Queue: 4 jobs
Job 1
Amino acid sequence: MKNKYIKIGVVALGLMSFGLTSCSDDFTNLAPIGAVSNESFWKTEADAIKGANGLYELMHDQEMFGRGFFWYINASDDMITGRTKATADVIKNFNINGSEGSYTSTCYEKCYKIIRRANDVLLNVSDMEISETLKNRVLGEAYFMRAFAYFWVAHTYGDDTNGGVPIVTVDNMFDAGGSYARPASVEENYAMIIEDLKTAADLLPLFTEYGAEDFGRPHKDAALAYIAKTNLYWAQYDASKYAEVVKYADLVTNSGSGRALVDTDNPATDYRELHSHLNNWESEYIWSVNSGVDRGSILTGVMLENKGWGKFNGWGYYTPSEGLYNEFEAGDVRKAVTILSFGDDFRYFGEAKRYQSENSLSGFQFNKYMYEFREADAIGKTVNTNGDNPTTVYNVPLMRYAEVLLMKAEALIADGKNGDAPLNLVRQRAGLAAKTNATIDDLKHERRVELAGEFANRHFDLVRWGDAQATYAQPIYGRIYDDRSNPDSPYTSKIVWPARTFDASYMNVWPIPTKVINSSGIPQNKNWN
């Protein structure tokens, strides 16, 4: 299916006050800037659409959903940093204090830029004299994107010990910089996120009601799915939220948009083509980073073999662990689609190849994001011509229907109920036998193998399950080959990342970037110093 994405409307003020100002780029400095004032802009339907389009600009930022937040996910046991990089290493080893200066340093402030843009839309579009249908959609987009940005910044940096992250809405967006306090608990953030998403769900159309020109805008199912996930994260503090997970997962299923797994009873083909641009807009993809040959998520190239076997500038980060590889059951078609191991067949720029790597530090590579590199004429057609911005036409998933099913299964099991039905839909698509009376360990396994290498966030799963400390106390193994240029070379399983000290008394959240602490005056998360 042809890839489409929303083009960002650019106006003279750089979408008015949509950028945060000051030399420190302080997220609490909310003064409008630019040559065009709010009074001269918010007039027409075209203005409202441009305002909405500006909400998505940072979705394409390399340090948001290209690398950015993925550096935190890379801390998990599923992968290692595939190249020697000092800053990447200290993140994975939990040795940062917020002053690392790159990689994760801008995730926080960029989330607040999205929040500011959303607040501007909510402030101005509500009173515009435009079509009610368009007004509702644009307001729904703003509520969704505000909630989505808060979802990421809240669970990454907030908990019930340090507090949540500052809540900035239309009501207080013009308060003095430095006046924003952290709420007592991240639960306050979760409550706000859910209220925003409920409003968004009421205002937004179903995806099936959009024309192709609007593919990539949030829709009702995306809002409902993130209500379910926010409740799942909230449930670590309040078990009553599991019932809400089930409720909203079912609302996604029954929304009328035809949500379903990509499943034609051909497991190997289904799962391979699921992770490709062929299914960008199909029933399983609920929310993604809309991508193309000129912009989008760079994760596809970040995971590619370093220097791409001499044909493309792959970056070689985030390489799978042997533990993840061994987690797959016999007969699970997801294994070959997810991971390349020495000797595995694949196509690359028109050439039939067998996997080997002289660069991978673990002896593996993620294969999920490789489909668009298959054809001889891929560059400029399905792959970016610029290897320094290695996007493809595959929309990197942030929320799939498979995760909605697994969230429901987890919530049911955690509530002492039977989660077999949603769990087994996912297993059946993978060509596996059904589970009977599935346990929480079955759920943890299924979530790990189904969502491996995705923004579903294995690291935070381990944190919220209380498994991170024990998991990270074990070293990570890879495969060291005698001849890394030979696909048939014998290997030895060796430690490729040593055991790490994870102190669950404070490491369940990450340190807030120092520049944010310095400019906003909010307190740093405890013990990150």
Note: The CA atoms of residues 341 and 367 lie 9 Å apart.
Job 2
Amino acid sequence: MTIWKTLLASAVLVSMGAGTAAIAQEEAAAPPITDFPREQTLIINNPDSPPTNPDMFNLWVAGAGVSAPNGLHQLSTDTLWFIDPDEGLDGALYNQLAAEPWQYNEDFTEMTVKLREGILWSDGEEFNAGDVVYTVETQMNTPGMVWSAPFSQNVETVEALDDYTVKFSLKQPNSRFHSLFSVRWNGAWIMPEHVFSQVEDVLAYDFNPPVSLGPYTLNSYDPNGYWYIWEKREDWDKTALAIWGEPAPQYVIYRSIPSTDNRLIEMVNGNLDMIHDLTPEGMFSLVQQSETSRGWFPGFPYAHPDPTLPMIIFNNQDERFQDKRVRWALALMLDARAISMASYRGAATLSAIAIPPTGTHPRDYHGPLQDWLIDYELDTGSSTIKPYDPSIGLQVADMVRPQFGDAVPTDETAIRTAFGYGWWKQDVQAAGELLEAAGFTKQGDQWMTPDGQPFAFTIKTFTEGVMNRFGTMAAQQWSQQGVRVTPEADPQIFAQTLPLGNYEAATAWSIETWGGDPDLSFFLESWHSDYVAEPGERQPQRNWQRWQDERLDAIIEEVRRTEFTSPRNLELGHEFVKLMVDEMPVIPMMSFNVFSAYDTRYWTGFPTAEERPYANIVTNWANSKYILTQLKPTQQ
């Protein structure tokens, strides 16, 4: 393993975004691409900035400065199960180091795991139950490790019943304990006992070079952290990934390229095979410049819908937002078409319900609930309306077709998959009736609260990009309807603002799902009223809206008692969606579409929305390892 000495090259590019020009300066070292056969090398964009501690590979230490998306958690680490946010190669659930799914006892106080046999670490040691037990016990006994808190909270004891069987005894019933070892993006990675047990201080150990449980080992890396190169193990077939086939690339290079403009240039020049994310404008430019480059969708909108749901989050502890009629009124003042055009230039996948329109969710939620949404009635206090418009996605497609032509799908099913099924009608009259029923009055062009104050608030939003445009457009639309709303760019929105409740409204997300599975436990447990903080206190993730309802608690508590694979989970998910529509504690808007791109100049077999949606195309997810087993050199 080599640490290459590199020279830093500076590049200054003009990046156009939100109608203004910004100068982006980047000093990024390029990897020695020419030292590796290009037809055997996959070059991937790592979207993260270089890690603060490039020599550190011990990703079990919290705050150690290691960067997982540099190939470490995709190519060399592993755990028991993976749940893909898309459809998967043979279903979204992968038995990875585990030979089969989890087995609970009747009251979910014990979980037993059967492990695969014949799996080897890259140094030739066999993986076995001792590694799993060591991983859990070490982190429980070592505060400061990433998984020490959840393991300590849940695990009473963990023991190896034999070399390939592990039994967990839990402190309380937990039907979702297995999720700690189930990777959607990240998970509890297994530590090599034979390595770490010899280390005096596991928190200080750099684990450099890392002993791999995956099919690749570290070849070399930039001491400044701009690139990492991985080489396929000769014994790749002794890893858990082998059940899905041999990963095709002999070498995989992860490159940190902070400038989205430079990512585009490098792909056009043949020096990148996969890009994590571009701006909407960057993606449109890429497909025009390169015949071999494309996105998740074959045409517009190109982007991959992530299993997160950008929304307008109300601080429901603010008295002005505690009446659902007010929240509904604000929803009906919005024009989702204009927000789509402003934020994504029309390339948004809209969602009127509190489920991101990604993975298998359109099949499980959005499609089956269309009739219910179309028939849904809302009492404004003066009339009863049906607020849902199932044609909104079709309308957005028509709006962008004059510019993007044949790149925009014409098939109605394809349009709904790409642009969303529908959204709420902009109905200013109904919004006014709801506000009046809630005690608000209008003086001239300004709505007044029941206590006679102007109805005005701020909305915290991201400092740039699609979320900033989303927040700015929503504020503009509300202001035009007589509610004075001021957008504020906030660089600490997730780190401080939302957890501390220092906001009135915000554009962010409090819903993240598995994507490939209808179970909602990924976020739903955190929404229980037990976890709602008092005003002024820090809110645990992820119920940033600080909303609570006895009906929601009842759904969550039944989820706790329901096995992960039970069909009942989808029924509970539908109940959750209908409750969220009735109460509107947040205003769902769209998925977080990521303009991931890949190039077929050197490799084919990438997942696609239309034919093979087997994996999330976003490159920093651990699930991207499955893509490597499906690739083939283009020349063949």
Note: Confidence is low (pLDDT under 50) at residues 5-26.
Job 3
Amino acid sequence: MSNVVLRTSDSEVCRIRCGPPLQAFAMRWNYVVRQRHRWADDPAARQRQTLRLQRDLRGLGVTAKHLRRLKGIVEVSVPDSPLDEFWEARILPWEYVLAAATKPHRVEQDILVVRHLKTGRRKRKRTPKRLVVIETAPGELARHFNFSAQRQLVTGGLRALSAETTGVLENPTERQLGEEIEAVSPDIVHVTGFDNRSGRERLGGNLSGLRDGLYLADPSAEAKEYRAEVIARLLNRGSPNPLLVGFHCWDSAARLAPMTIHAGARSAIGFQHTFDEAVAEIFFLHFYRAYADSQWNLLAAFCSGWESIAAYRPRIRGSSIVLWSADSLVSNATSEIGQNGFGIGATTLRPSTRPPAVSRSADPQRVHIRDLVQVSVRPNHQINYSSLHNGQSVFEQLTLRLHPNPSEPEAITQINDLELEVQLHVGVDSYPFRSRLNLDMDAYRYDLADRVTLPLTGELFRAINERIQTSLFVDLRWHDQVLYRHTHSVWLAPIDQWTLDDSQIGWLPSFVQPRDPAVARTIDVAQGYLQCLKDQVGAGFDGYQSYDGFASGLACWDGVDRQVRSIWAALLLSNKLRYINPPPSYADFTQRLRTPGETIGGGFGTCVDLAIVMASCLEWIEVHPVLFLLHGHVFVGYWKDFHAHQRFLDVATEDLPARTPDGEMPRDDASQRWVSGPKTYAEIKGFVDRGELVPIETVALTRGKGFAAAIDEGREHFYKKRSRAFRAMIDLVSARAEDGVTPLPLRFSESHVG
């Protein structure tokens, strides 16, 4: 049986045997890290994860004594196999696992993890001479990606290579890619574009059966998926094979990078799970510069690139940049490249032959702003009031990239007084944003999309009844020079419209209105039913304070059930609710939603409207509601067990999604901590099966069904073979936490209440 070896520059630390225990460990922690949006922002939750991680590592033979020795540069040496036999060692997020587990022992010492694939090939040194940049966003994917900035940072960073040996291959087919690599035999290949997951999401495809890989063009120039092993073979068609392949795309660390090394390359860089676009650009900019300046010292360059993103690491917590190499990089590392914060460093960087630059601010009389700054602007095609209300930007991208000229004897270090103006026009009204910016040329990139906040106080904005086409004006100027000026056409959705695409479903909690007067009246009616159920005149809604410490098992939470049952009775017996199709929205993947007052007062609602009513009532009494989203259906649920809810947030579960024979687990990352996607179905089903999470089919209100029958119907959605229908679960408590999603400022009237 082969082993994974953990070593530092001093010595080997320990060995971990490959096989079922490591496979189970890899699957569990891969899942936990992919669900990091639930727990990464909570220091206490991170501490609990560390304790669980240390416990699980002890089960693999990695003790506290071993963890104390893991500091500085730590190499994870993984056995190679043509059949992907040791997949568990490749997919495990070693960077998070070792950094988190050793943190209590390291105090202020840093750790940087690199990976070694034990191919058994002899080490051969040569100096890089040829570079190929591959840009692949074919067909419909092209409108989601702009390669010009990346091309400039790669070629600029590797300025030591002559322009004659640098080539760019745009949207190649499988054949074209293979022929180019075979003809050029590049020493360095930089690949940027769409991995199979993110590409299929952009194209709106079904994510079932997805495998790691990359999109290339088919013979008709449309987008086509290729698996990782195919891409790896294509990138190694040249002779000799590449010294380095850099993958600037998601999900490239677990298979694309190591398979490329297995096929012949000496090293590869990829990203574990997702990556932040700004972080990736900054990393590669500094990495390639350091790679050339250090006389092609890979480890020194990787250290430099990692240090350059120090300020951004909270944005990639749990995901990481991964360096794979066919050669062990920690052997004699200290003697080769000196000391720094990781125990080794980039002290062999060639000293600059230029005199120190004189710092100065850009002078509008001497320079053109477009020579210094590149602008990328991409507004959201449709602007929803609910997303703006919760702080989402009107832009998909609003980015400034700075391009200083270090060869000048007096380098420009500052650009002062850059003016940004954004105006959203709604009828005769306009909603302006203005800001004055001072840019530091060392920063390279400024992402301004989240800085643009528009006032939402106008009555006209909130009174829009139908989707309208309007304009978004963007103006960037520097003194009397115009850097960017354009009016974009955008769609503006009415305030009650909810968009069902993956980027917008997380705003559904804004339509849950616990302060709607109809909710207060419903709770007032439910009070009488609760008094009857408890046989107590003074019975009230006290949420989870109804816990009975003398009862055993889930019976201790029966008081929560009684409160929810009384609300159901009030809605069922005091209102004649009927089902109705949603109002017309005149747009794809959208739905117009009613307030609780409109649903109760009108006596009808869609599945979403009815779920919103019940969730609003549950939130009012402080019982934690959830919203279950299936394809084409929505219903409500609630956490019966308060402690089970905390275990869910911590991802403290053994209910993991099914894996493929080679351990591949499709990504289910979410940008919003309160949204749990399709790959959490097995975990959520476990809570439902144990009775800790109670689903209620709220459409049963329109059929006169009792509380128990509604729960039975809710459970039916979690029967076997129902997983394909599951889309997401939205946790209301998580959504509201820390200035999260707040209810929309809808206007209520007595006519809504009835």
Note: The longest strand covers residues 412-426.
Job 4
Amino acid sequence: MTTGGESFVEDQLRASNALLRALTQAQADFIRGSEARGILDRLLTVVLELTGSTSGVIGELLTSNGAPPSLRLLASLPREEADTTWELPVRQDAPEQAPSDLRTLVGAVVSTGAPVLSGVPGAEHTFLGLPLESEGERVGLVGLAQRPGGYDTGLLDFLQPFLDACGGLLAGGRNERRRRLAEQEMRQTQEASAERVRLLAERLRLVLESMQDGLWDLDMTTGQLFANRAWLGMLGYAEGELEQSQTTWARLCHPDDVANGERLVQEHLKGAIPLVENEQRLRRKDGGWSWVLTRARVVARDEQGRPLRMVGTNVDITVQKRNEERLRSLIRTLPDLVLRQRADGTYLDYHAAKPEDLAVPPERIIGSNMRQTPFPASLIDKMFMHLGRAIREGTLEVFDYALELPNGREYFEARIRRSGPDEAVSIIRNITERKLFEQRLLQQEEELRRHRDSLEELVRNRSEKLLKATIELEEQQAQLIQTEKLASLGQMAAGVAHEINNPVSYVMSNLGTLDQYVSSLIPLLQLLRELVANPGSASAELLERLGELWKQEDVDYLLTDMPELVEESLVGARRVKEIAQSLRTFAREDTGEPQLVDVNTELASTLKLVWNELKYKCEVKRDFGPLPPVSCHPTQIGQVFSNLLINASHAIETRGEIRIRTRQEGSEVVVEIADTGKGMSQETLSKLFTPFFTTKPRGQGTGLGLSVSYGIIAKHKGRIDVQSQPGQGSTFTIRLPAAQR
């Protein structure tokens, strides 16, 4: 199967080969003396096509003392930009803004002295600026713009041969101008001919040395070979280590490649092919082999047409060959049928793990057309439709089809991807087993669906029964809680009665005393009424009787004692009212809706209710901290506090202490109720919250108090923990979530 990575490698190889061919042609044209401007214009066109850019420039950097640098455009697309010079003021710091056009891009490259990439993929403007150098000197600039996918650093390696070639051409152009100037001077001094030869030799030397590809010039009459350092360097040799001759070259060629190379040369000499283009292996200095792409042509003949001189290039393609071999190895491992064909349906190449999968004999498939296959016409039309779309639009075309074969009906999947301007690669996979599996899977899914429907009906019935049982259980649980609550209320009844009896007793006593006081004051009040009714007829006898009665009933004492009796009676009445309110709060019916409750208030109310259980043998110490409200059922929370306080008092055998502490920890309200009682063993702790478990004598406890309390706290999404050791008392810790504000 061809993957995205493999297609990328193929595209890279084709692009590299296209660029190398263009560079080789440019080098040959330059050697033949073509104008640098035309060569650069053709190279720019190729690079724009290979990178997908829409515009670009190649220019020579001009500098002079005391003047800002400028760029003389040698090649430009669009072409109307050519034959102009851009003034480029140099900045000492890096540009602050991204380039907006090619002119500012070139200025940025001059300022930084390094490649400039601008614009992410999908941006409105994308630029790539690259300096051109030759022998350490910056000679020019290349600017590319508007690549749809943006530019990345990977393009730098790909474009390096192009940059080297352009740098060499610009350097050669500069040397050419220098040569012309020198030629003019030589003509003035009558030494023009000798100087021209020297400059031509220098020009050739500079061009050859500036190229990274191997360049060679063969004198076909003497067999003398001139090669640049890159030609020797790619084989690991330095200058002077090899005799430069045609014989040496023949000795370096792999024996299996000699015949093909000689055949191509002979065909070129006869005019059958315009150019020798041969991939061959050359032995390196270390004994290994390098794959080299050789391109050459005859550039000089004598008057009889005999070849005198052949010029060519060598490019190291070892890496490409290795990648191609890896790709071929990968394809050979595929169990699928792989076909490469043109848009007209002609088969160009194929790979078949099983030759019997081919519709035509293997020896006839190359060059045949898809129209010649024994497929149904409708299937062929479908294949052509997907083939054309894949080549035109670059999409991955995937479709299934079925064929009636001698062994029965079989299914296939075709995947088509463009592999060139007018060709595509198709991968055909037999998916019969997958189709049969899908059919079996559909049958199983249908059967599972029927089973699922049956199970859902069964679950629905059981869920209804479970819901009914749950409702009954909740009702029973509510009854159980109410029963425990009534049991607790019964336990507190005697204590509450005793608590109420004390204030009621002294209220009754005070009322009896007040009744006597009122009886003593009535005669005095009657005399006062007569005196008030007849103030003018007051006699000394009446006043005397009034004074005697005042002393006899000791009215001064009564007036002093009566307010105290009333105040004591009011205190007793308020005490009774508080106990009644606490009892009412404890016994109130739960509304079913949570309420915002102050836990400190609930604790204080519960303490009043159970005080008779505590006061005779417990000293209660409170440490109430500020608390946020808690969303809860106050009746249930009060029942928990009541159970824990009564249990704490029962755990104290003679005299002890109960400590109640409240605080806030994060988002939780914490209540600690600790006693100094007899404590509990680990065995008792393990069963403490088990329903009907009690440590009290038979008949004194139901064993539901702590179990119900645990359930209430859990229902409120809280926790209740206990720590206890025999003889060291117990501490119950309740944690409830604070209400969200």
Note: The two ends are 61 Å apart (CA to CA).
